[in-house]
Design a protein that fits this description.
GO terms for molecular function: carbon-sulfur lyase activity; pyridoxal phosphate binding; transaminase activity. Keywords: Aminotransferase, Pyridoxal phosphate, Transferase. It comes from Wocania arenilitoris. By secondary structure, the protein is α/β, with parallel strands linked by helices. The chain is built from 15 helices and 12 strands. 38% of the residues lie in helices and 14% in strands. The strands form 2 sheets. It has a 7-stranded mixed β-sheet with strand order 1-7-6-5-4-2-3, with helices on both faces. Strands 8-9-12-11-10 form a 5-stranded mixed β-sheet, covered by helices on one side. α3 runs parallel beside α10. The relative contact order is 0.13. The model has no long low-confidence stretch (mean pLDDT 95). Bound molecules: pyridoxal-5'-phosphate. Pyridoxal-5'-phosphate binds next to α4 and α5.
């Protein structure tokens, strides 16, 4: 049967405590027990339906978690206070001292910094590879490797991971395949392609209103129980817990994700094609010129398109900065990091979200100074937007007037 993630969200039926159409928000950090025995059982992890303390779990976080698990097709999920809260707890749950990770080299700068600079403090080492080359990935695996880590569509270079191929490697070597699906919610469903753990920064498309940070880990019941274990669970002990009020508001935004993703993708595909036709160096997985266009097509849930992210390279950082400032002045979007907002957001990753990656490594992976990353907004008239961007580009000589 074809997996339809938006149907899974649509089909959720929650009755609020007082019959409300939204689940009631749980406004408590701690919970009463009618008997001391039940409290003991709950600490032992044996009392289904009983809440202990909101760092462990709360009704509002569970509602949101179950909705995201339905979207990703996993048994369950655990909500965290940020995407990094999700990523760091997964890595620290799966790896102990002297373990090794094979990771894509093009990943979000914060994840890169964690793996490169922080995890080694615990003697957890990472080899960064070109994730699009399965033979290189497999060759990097050692006897200590525990995790294969990638983003389905990478930040910021928009490289596409062959999740089925990576899952086969992970299986052969008894590794966990962990996929950050932040750039491609609904479009790609990594768990159905063989990923063991799927992570999102909810901060981006899923929440979609740039008013909070948040994260989720989707996986098996066993793994999520491990994360929440009061004795050695990374989520429970590191304490990156989302507040119930926020969880309730993210859940409400999730319900329109399918409509928003269609519009983000439509607008991004429109602009990518125009930019490319104008002769700009444009990267978008929906363009035939993207090296992994066919791979993306083979993995995608077609309805949601190739996502809202695209990059152009204008040659130099100064030019990129001038263009971004001008576009912001003309109200075409905001010069800001992050993604998934109703307005277009643009930034130069080399000097912002990927600045944790040393310059020589940026160069090696193809991250140039003049690269601008766009998170394309929900603009109702994208042709109007294009025409206005074009004016900016002409003023700055990025687009030469056609002879
Ligand atoms: C792909 C990706 N994963 C994870 C993160 C981290 O998420 P958060 O900022 O919510 O901690 C980000 C961005 O910040 C991201 O772009």
């Amino acid at each position: 049967m074809v997996f339809k993630p938006a149907n899974s969200i649509q089909d959720l039926q929650y009755f609020g405590e007082f019959g409300g159409v939204n689940p009631s928000i749980s406004d408590s950090s701690t919970y009463t027990f009618l008997s001391a025995k039940t409290m003991f059982d709950t600490f032992e992890g044996n009392a289904d339906g009983c809440y202990l303390y909101s760092r462990h779990s709360s009704p509002s976080n569970l509602y949101l978690g179950e909705a995201l698990a339905a979207m990703e097709g996993t048994e369950t999920a655990n909500i965290s206070a940020s995407g990094m809260g999700a990523i760091t707890s997964v890595i620290l749950q799966l790896c102990s001292a002297s373990d090794h990770i094979v990771s894509s080299r093009t990943i979000y700068g914060g994840t890169y910094a964690f793996l490169k600079n922080f995890a080694p403090r615990f003697n957890i080492e990472t080899t960064f590879v070109d994730i699009t080359k399965l033979d290189v990935v497999e060759a990097a695996i050692t006897k200590n490797t525990k995790v294969l880590y990638c983003e389905s569509v990478s930040n910021p270079l928009l490289e596409v991971a062959d999740i089925k191929g990576l899952a086969a490697i992970a299986k052969r070597h008894d590794l966990k395949l962990v996929v950050d699906n932040t750039f491609s919610p609904l479009s790609i469903s990594p768990a159905t392609l063989g990923a063991d753990v799927v992570i999102h920064s909810l901060t981006k498309f899923i929440n979609g209103s740039s008013d909070t940070v948040g994260g989720v880990v989707c996986g098996t019941q066993e793994f999520i129980n491990d994360l929440r274990n009061v004795n050695d669970g990374a989520s429970m002990l590191l304490g990156s817990t989302m507040d119930s009020l926020r969880a309730a508001s993210v859940l409400k935004n999730l319900r329109t994700l399918h409509i928003r993703m269609q519009q983000h993708s439509f607008n991004a595909a429109f602009l990518a094609k125009k930019f490319k036709d104008d002769g700009l160096k444009t990267v978008y997985p929906g363009l035939k010129s993207h090296p992994s266009h066919e791979l993306f097509k083979s993995m995608m849930n077609k309805k949601y398109g190739f996502g809202g992210m695209l990059t152009i390279d204008v040659g130099a950082l100064e030019k990129a900065n001038e263009l971004m400032e001008l576009m912001q002045n003309r109200n075409l979007g905001y010069l800001a990091v992050s993604l998934g907002f109703y307005k277009t957001l643009f930034s130069a990753p080399g000097s912002s979200t990927s600045s944790e990656i040393p310059e020589d490594e940026q160069k090696e992976m193809g991250l140039s100074n003049g690269l601008i990353r766009f998170s394309i907004g929900l603009d109702a008239d994208i042709d109007r937007t294009y025409q206005l961007v074009r004016v900016c580009m002409k003023e700055l000589n990025i687009l030469k007037p056609k002879k």
